[in-house]
Amino acid sequence: MHDPKAEAARCWEQAVDDRLFVLTTAQEARFFDKACFIAQQATEKAVKACLYALGKREVLGHAVLQFTRDLAQSAPAFSKMAPQAVRLDRHYIPARYPNGLPGGTPSGSFSADDLFVAIQDLKAIFAVAEKFLRTRKVIE
Fold this sequence. Notes:
The protein is mostly helical. It has helices spanning 4-28, 32-53, 64-72, 82-89, 106-109, 112-135. The chain has a single domain, classed as Nucleotidyltransferases  domain 2 (Four Helix Bundle (Hemerythrin (Met), subunit A), Up-down Bundle). The protein is elongated, with a radius of gyration of 15 Å. The two termini are 24 Å apart.
């Protein structure tokens, strides 16, 4: 395993790139399902970066909610992110797989409104994560 601080920086760098993809896709008003999934992924990577910044050597799983709960023990600001985390985690399976939905397909089931909410949730958690990583000197 890499140095946790270096791994935090790598996760953050990819999270920022994924966020840019989501924001760019939103401007194109297309691919709402895929952008919602990547919003969840970007946020997952951002909070994983924070866990690595705490010195964790391994961070497994995909649940933004669980990661924010874990982080709340060291950074209380994450405790307020549960509603956003829950909404983003809902995109993990249904935004990718038809059998994750009761009918239809992800491409036909996700809307601009879904993406708008996902972006707001992503931005909220990113703001907390960025502040946390700055205080830990992971990012400048």
